[in-house]
Records
---
Amino acid sequence: MLENVLKTQALAKSYGRIKAVKSLDLEVPDGAVFGILGPNGSGKSTTLSMLLGILTPDSGSFSWFGQAPEPAQRKRIGALLEQPNFYPYLSARKNLEIACLIKECSPTRVDIVLEQVGLLARAESAFKTFSTGMKQRLAIASALLADPKVLVLDEPTNGLDPQGIAEVRELIIQIAKRGKTILLASHILDEVEKVCTHVAVIKQGQLLAQGSVMEILRNQHQVELKADDMEALERALSAYEPAAERRRVGNLIVLSMTGEPDGSALNRYLYDQGLVLSHLRVHKKRLEESFLEITAKA
């Protein structure tokens, strides 16, 4: 079994004096939903464009399916990099039939992908009658026509309303369940956390962290604490072994825990130290918090 569908080594691209991507090393496991996460202008779209052969890297290399890039590989990769571009007065089916001619794939795939994206009932409707979310789903259907092994999506929920975002999110999850590897770029942390199994965090073209979502959230639980004597509380917590990290946030002390926190045991430990808590709250760390911590250190 192929371990990594995609691997990049020191991939770099500049526009004049602007270094859009700096020595990027990525490893995308087979079957992963891999999110490239970063703010606007961080090099996400440039990276995807290089991987799809639209842009030529200045330096570095990449391989798809364990091999150097070649034109034949593109049939194994479906992509949606820009806004959907269809004939407005033609039906969804006619638009996809035209796409089949361009992609040199069987028109029998049209109804299959329309069903996959939940648009089979609207197959004869003109594209111009579709909502923004439906247009995006049709674009994903087009990317699936050749039954690719990998699906590449650039900001797939950009410009969608909450319902459209939810529809595309569920669609990505369902496509992944069919065994496809999905590589998507996004700046929306909440969406990445809900759909991705793996993530790479980039800022100004530079890789800051990558791994499974669980690895990125390795200290995934936090405990907020407060007592009348905060200095004494801080001293007592400095010797509390289950805490991986301790910091002051406003009028609270926040502990990052290496495992599932036991609030009762922590409360009992502090009571034995002569401290009575006025506030104790356990919550799971979010990808947003990890992202902000990672990018703040860069």
---
Amino acid sequence: MIKILFVCHGNICRSPMAQFVFQHMVNEAGLSDRFEIDSAATSREEIGNGPHRGTVRKLQEVGIPILSHRARQVTKQDYEQYDLLIIMDKENLWGIQRIIHNDPAGKIHMLLEYTGDNRDVADPWYTGDFDTTYDDIARGCKALLEKLI
């Protein structure tokens, strides 16, 4: 089983969107028994909160199921438990390293690196543009899944 943790700053916009999109892709491919997928935050600001209404609205618009979710912060134990920790931007790298300290197993990757694009996933918290964020995440998740299978 491949265990993937998607990580962003607050765990209410990008990382749960990536979790739900990737889970949907995995389910559609008939591979749900091969993956464990979750998401977490580098900060504590949104702990306990559900997905942002913009994330929910966008996923409903494209027909992707909204899963049960409450924001949580990534832990050192997550590094041991998960095979991949997929971050949304360079700031998340700083945040996750502050918690786990280093990445000796090379588990931390930016989502868009799987598309050959080494840029951040657009952050809708600041822009309100959940369409661009969804496009980035869908491209990244598709490329990640293709790499893993």
---
Amino acid sequence: MLAAAGVGFGHAVLPDHWMPLAVLSRTRRYPTRRTVRLSLAAGVTHVLVSLVMGAVLVLVGLQFRDTVSRHTDLVIGGILLVTGAAFLVMELVGRGHGHGHDGEHGHVHGHDHAHDHEHEHSHDHGERDARGLAAFLVPFGAAASPDLTILPVFLAAGAVGVVASITSLIAFALVTIVTIVVLTTATAAGARLLTAPWIDRGANLLTAGTLLLVGGLVAGGVV
């Protein structure tokens, strides 16, 4: 149980499991309740995916564990890097901000102009929705990425007996989920205390920078 709890905590404290979620919650001004729900869902998904992948590896052979783990880091890190780079580019070229109306469109002249404006407006909303969906799914996916370092502990517990297996599973799940929820919620709450205007103006840049930083660490095998 202690080994399972230790592995769960040691993996959950890595920044890819909570930092992007915390930055997302701060930049989008999520209330604490929503941050808790989001991080709880990520923690539960992380545990379930870890167990499923662990079961698959036990069936096909543990010799693939290191290979799968390395490729998982490359995939998750690569997705974070690409998404962060895309957000950064959109922000630098001026497409990271919402579309505003300055009153110049108060009069519409002709059906074609109205149609073009409506099409441009709907296209802009669709683009922002796509960016918003990516900004949500990528941090959530990183937080929910599996932990295969727990496999030796589960196998050792299985050799001891059913009770040891179940208690180890419970210890791993509880410690992992609680760690992700606490770190995400506490970091987001602390970040909300920082109310400097540049933080809100540079929300997209902060998100991009966080994804690039964490993505680089994950892809490089540092975390």
---
Amino acid sequence: MAGIVLNVEKREKTGTGGARATRKSGLIPGILYGGPRGSIPIEVNAKEISLAIRSGKFLSHMVELNHQGEIQPVIPRAIQFHPVTDEPIHVDLYRVEENSEIDIDVVVHFRNHEASPGLKRGGALNIVRHTIKLRCKANKIPEEIVVDLTGREIGDSIHISSITLPDGARPVIRDRDFTVATVAGRKVEAEPVAVEAAAAPAEAEKKEG
């Protein structure tokens, strides 16, 4: 639990005009869905949402909604931002129970670049997946997935099977050992050879002439 509590009210005005009126009053429109209650239009204080986003623990944690004293754990599923001001303009929240399992994208961080022989020799880290969708308990969402680059050589592929996942979490994709990143060689190393090979016939032509 991230310790974030959002005070919400049921939104009476829906549609484009209703959403615009909600924003003018300092609130952000949203949808609360999931569970037997179905979808409910809601409105949340804009300042509370902005503070939650700046905490860095909003999209990747379970938070609490407070509706007239009733507390409901939820997972933020999506946030829409204004294209110019970059302020949040809409939020989707999904009801969960603390011990229920959910699927959520968790960010991947790469560590120990300096301990990779391949990277030290000029190789490049090619990141295939910046996030990985994990299945875990709603109250135990991992902060991150850490990939250790120690000992990685040029040509190495890092698959999900070689990564130690947080306790209680497992990848949603189970039918294949998918690639998370590779250590690739620099293409520029091959270019001088190609140029020299192309120059050889030209030199031969000059001598024949």
